[in-house]
Amino acid sequence: METYHAGSRAVQDRVGVRELADHVGQIIGQGIKPVAAAFLELQPLLILGAADPATGRVWASPLTGTPGFVRATGPHQISITGTTRPTDPLTPALADAQDLPVGTIALDPRTRRRMRVDGQLRHTERGLAIEAERVFANCPKYIQRRESYETIADREPAQPRHATELTTSQAEFIAAADTFFLATVHEHGADASHRGGNPGFVQATSPHELTWPDYTGNAMFLSLGNLLADPRAGLLFLDWTTGTTLQLTGEARPEFGTDGERRVRFTLTEVIETPAALPLRWSLPEYSPANPPPVR
């Protein structure tokens, strides 16, 4: 797989960072190194992004388990014990998947580290397996530190609530968020990434629309490049204390201002809110020093 496709190249050229992107892109590999394998085995949370082949909709979905539920089983493969919740929108697609393009991200708030693995997923007797095609770590920029977590064993997910527009309380949930996960797709695969900032950095401007700034990052523009080529996207917001999740699917389009500012505008197709979806309760955040103040 090429490091960059035409969408990412178009954004890099527009911003004037192609040479830098070529240099940074050397971090992307196909193999899972021992340090990456060790990192994966410590994580209780993995985010998976993919397009549902039946509907074409893109979702970002959480998977949780006792550390070790995600592990490298070879230099090019990771195995996942278990799968998404029965009511998750991606569960039907994963149930009999063979070579489904997926993107994953493991983010550890304790160390402010993250790792991304993109590849082809298949269903197994024990859960899921991913043949890795792209493996890389990102810098800690915009990751909020959370010192610890605990697993709430008796927390049971409530019935999901489906809608085609945001409620007032869901808009407030989004406005209070300091983190969300973004799933995007391209012709040859899928990707899952992280977006972070001080609360207020992402806003619901209407019951059908969200917007957020595209902060300066690693110059690769993988997500923005995907959206330029294919606007389908999935967003995942989670409450790090109660475990409630908010999953959105729709279309996201980059906007380039004359002053060099970049924003993304997301139009909602469907929203799924699941109270107490995740059993994890994390400590309060220490905001990243890289976070710009949100523009009101």
UniProtKB/TrEMBL annotation:
| SUPFAM superfamilies noted in UniProt | FMN-binding split barrel (SSF50475)
Query: Taking every annotated instance into account, which residue ranges of this chain make up the domain Pyridoxamine 5'-phosphate oxidase N-terminal?
Result: 169-266
Which InterPro entries does its entry note? Pyridox_Oxase_N, Split_barrel_FMN-bd
Which PANTHER family does the protein's record reference? Answer: FAD-BINDING, PUTATIVE (AFU_ORTHOLOGUE AFUA_6G07600)-RELATED (PTHR42815)
Protein known as: Pyridoxamine 5'-phosphate oxidase family protein
